[in-house]
Design goal:
- The longest helix has about 40 residues.
- The chain is mainly α and about 400 residues long.
- A hairpin with a 2-residue loop joins strand 3 and strand 4.
- Helix 6 packs across helix 9, helix 9 packs across helix 17 and helix 13 packs across helix 15.
- The strands form three sheets. It has a two-stranded antiparallel sheet with strand order 1-2.
- The chain contains 17 helices and six strands.
Length: about 400
């Protein structure tokens, strides 16, 4: 084949059809323009959908600095709630924003605690404030939302649950009783971030409105961070007690003289995950570890002393649908340990004795209220409101813990 002739023919053919080349160029340009336009439209649509999608996925708990949650705007607060946001016990109204000096608020809370007559005898709490608390700048904080806070608790719980010597615990604290160990394991596995958060809310907030407490906690977390919560003092007792769980040395202490509370279970945890020997030096996730270990200790004490009624009641609390009652039990064991038995006996009667239930529901002063959970069992939370002596003040604890836990799960 004569290649040169073929090339010449091609050149001649191209020369004879310049319009073909021009047409191709125009077609390419047209397609390019259409492509760019389509791409731009696509991006625009994509951005538009992305924007809508992001709006739909915005964190409902997220607040701007000093922004008050919508559910709290216009609410009047006093006493402890007021102190927490710089109101110094006075009744104040929450508007769209609330700004306060966190250092001043902490100082005023401790001064309120130290003004108690009995506190003059307790120098340890005052020393701790002077040497530690007063040196912290609470206005320098990292905002965190309530779901993020619960995620932190979840991570801590998983570490502890996966690194605890259950066999050692069983032999020492439960006297080798396998049935009690199984019950303890089932109960402890059901302790969740919401269990601890509702427990904390019950300790920090005096009111029984769960929705208010949830929004107020979220507000404090984003305008003071976890550090602010950790150093809020319990102003009504005479101990070195603060933190979100309001622990005292009765809850965490290990000395040559012996161990208290969570410290009794601490030895069964992997060494690098153990809590410090004293409540006064807990930091960060130590608080959540200590809360879990204290619950394990309290449940162990309870299990060692069970009878048939308590055994049946406790086994019901191992069910996932009864977590609200487990949260109540946790709070009561912290507040007034002697009341756990009354709580469980009452719950068992309400669920097994129809005559007793009807009698309580028709009680003459009308203050007994009940909710029925999805399993058809009674969630008690005001069963002793009519006579505070029956439960020695713990009625308020289980009412607000129930409401706090229920709201957190909505």
């Amino acid at each position: 084949m004569n290649t040169s002739n073929k090339l010449n023919e091609n050149k001649e053919s191209q020369a004879k059809k310049p319009w073909k080349i021009k047409e191709r160029i125009e077609n390419i340009q047209t397609k390019a323009r259409k492509g760019v336009t389509a791409a731009l439209i696509g991006l625009s649509i994509s951005w538009g959908f992305s924007s809508c999608e992001n709006k739909g996925k915005e964190d409902p708990y997220k607040l701007e600095i000093n922004e008050v949650p919508k559910a709290l705007i216009g609410k009047r607060i006093s006493k402890l709630y007021s102190y927490y946001v710089g109101g110094n016990w006075k009744t104040i109204t929450l508007w769209k924003t609330q700004n306060w000096d966190k250092n001043e608020a902490i100082k005023n809370l401790y001064e309120k605690k130290f003004s108690r007559e009995n506190m003059r005898k307790y120098v340890v709490a005052k020393q701790h404030y002077d040497n530690v608390v007063s040196k912290i700048n609470f206005n320098d904080y990292t905002p965190i939302t309530l779901p993020e806070y619960e995620e932190q608790i979840d991570q801590t719980l998983n570490k502890i649950k996966n690194n605890i010597d259950r066999d050692g615990l069983w032999k020492k604290l439960l006297w080798g009783d396998k049935e009690k160990l199984r019950t303890l394991q089932d109960l402890s596995d059901n302790i969740s971030p919401k269990s601890l958060t509702s427990y904390s809310m019950t300790e920090l907030f005096p009111g029984t409105d769960g929705n208010f407490n949830k929004n107020f906690l979220n507000f404090l977390l984003q305008n003071g961070g976890t550090q602010y919560l950790e150093y809020l003092p319990a102003i009504y007792d005479d101990y070195t007690s603060f933190w979100q769980y309001q622990f005292t040395s009765l809850a965490v202490r290990e000395t040559d003289e012996g161990k208290e509370g969570a410290s009794k279970v601490n030895e069964f945890v992997e060494k690098d995950l153990r809590i410090p020997w004293s409540v006064s030096i807990l930091q960060g996730e130590d608080h959540h570890k200590a809360a879990y270990l204290l619950i394990i200790n309290n449940l162990s004490n309870l299990l060692r002393n069970w009878d048939n009624t308590i055994q049946n009641a406790l086994k019901k609390l191992t069910k996932i649908e009864n977590q609200s009652n487990l949260a109540q039990l946790i709070a009561i064991m912290h507040n007034k340990p002697i009341n756990w038995k009354k709580f469980l006996e009452e719950r068992e009667k309400l669920n097994t004795n129809k005559t007793y239930l009807e009698k309580k529901q028709n009680w003459k002063n009308g203050k007994y209220n009940y909710d029925t959970n999805q399993n058809g069992q009674i969630d008690i939370y005001e069963s002793f409101v009519g006579n505070k002596n029956d439960i020695e003040w713990s009625h308020n604890y289980w009412e607000k813990t129930y409401n706090n836990f229920k709201t957190l799960n909505e």
